[in-house]
């Protein structure tokens, strides 16, 4: 076979292989760089999606907690309004255990309280039944002697037939007594400290 190529061509034959190798290496390097960059982008995208999902979950939790906080605040506001209304109706600083304990000592055994209300300006109404006039007089006397009831007045008294299931009918008296619970917080605190609010 005859070599028709000029003699200079054979000199560059080895360098062509190197050139082809360099080009191939360059292409492979570029492909590897592009692939690694693509994989890095895919990984970062997955990481961002995971973080977004976590943020979404946290936002959902915060939304639920915010709703709970709003409900708690609404309940708190309602309780405060209720307490304000109660204070307007009942008056502040009535130490109920002491008052109720004092009331317990006022009513004798043959009598019972049907209703005990405290309204504006600490006015009270005591309604109930007793089996005889002597006990009714004793209730009024005990109320007047008590430190916790002032301006005691018998408003209504009427004779009635008293009947409760499993008890025999008897004559008795229905009564309504009105008065005022004095504003004597210092005295109530003194009795509370002494333990008079504890039922014995």
Automatic annotation (TrEMBL):
It comes from the Bacteria. Residues 62-89 form a coiled coil. It holds the Pfam family PilN. InterPro entries: Extracell_DNA_Util/SecSys_Comp, PilN. Keywords: Coiled coil, Membrane, Transmembrane, Transmembrane helix. The chain crosses the membrane at residues 18-39. This is Fimbrial assembly protein PilN.
